[in-house]
């Protein structure tokens, strides 16, 4: 195997994995630990510093201990693309999959565990497939494959969801099943963007293993020869209206719509909850992923406010005050996203709240009460910002934010975002949360977006040799 071919395989696989996970879970990074021969050290490929901060644990696992160098007896029974799995090192905030076989003594992929994941299962399946693809590429030594794995991993979302569902159903109902998962997922995506009289689908559709249908108590069922075909998406979309805004569920055997039930679903059932332009996919009681715009996504569609939580922790506020403010912001942001409108929240952390240009209130509104938070959610729809003090009171709404131009402005964003950048650059002890109507949430403090991410662009030219783990630990 030439050094050039090996580097191309690794870099194309890394890039494909990163691109695919970024579409599925939002901006994602990936890293690789790899040893190609029993006597070779572990090499580290981490172009985006995903592993930074985990050096002590990696040293303990792979430098102080040499267990990974001992090939297990199971290697002799593995096929060329199969790996004997290594245990997950359980690094905080990271997901990992690694293994070995007779051709590759050690291989482990890493990616970040996003805080808004519905389930880590599909992402773990993605890493497992990336490992298998790289092992195949390295064993093939064929220039025709040097970029093939990258293209496969870029569009692996549906396959990752399917692989995880199949694994879980094998555990719960066995491997001898008649419900095919790929056609089920295709039907869910097809129905999700089929509108009826301009309305997006709402309601629940369950896919039940055919052998369990006889145990269901149906409110209404259809004769065998008249059951609507699942391939007729528009007909299925029309029938979904019968279960809107209710506890009723449409039931399918994977080929046709069988009937309507309110009964508890049997094990191994796949449930799609349509909620308008998006929806959620469940296996039994476990949420697997969401879907929108004809694609599966890992997000639970709740705002990621981790950076706000960290900013509050760094403030001088008491823990109870931090918790109260975080809950208030979470409620208002969730309401704005559900109603699909943008808004701006100004958290004033000063002991005495300043005056902002806008509609002030005769008496501050207590946002710790149910009536107060409901009113604040409605006031968030008015143009301008909500002014929230450190005491969890609302001091004003429709507030105007101004300031001088600063380098952190982004002309690709709207006035709401850029005015928040200017205002926070001129005012300390202020945190501004900007919610866009298309769901992204920005946390801005001191003129800097805390939620901003830098994209990785591979440098042109010849790829360098990845450093060994020992060299990388000394960097």
Automatic annotation (TrEMBL):
Protein keywords: DNA-binding
Top-rank lineage group of the source organism: Bacteria
Gene Ontology molecular-function annotations: DNA binding
Listed Gene3D superfamilies: DNA integrity scanning protein, DisA, N-terminal domain (3.40.1700.10)
Protein's UniProt keywords contain DNA-binding: yes
Keyword Transferase recorded: no
PROSITE patterns: DAC
Residue ranges of every copy of the DAC domain listed in the record: 305-458
UniProt-recorded name of the protein: DNA-binding protein
Species of provenance: Desulfovibrio subterraneus
Phylogenetic lineage: Bacteria, Pseudomonadati, Thermodesulfobacteriota, Desulfovibrionia, Desulfovibrionales
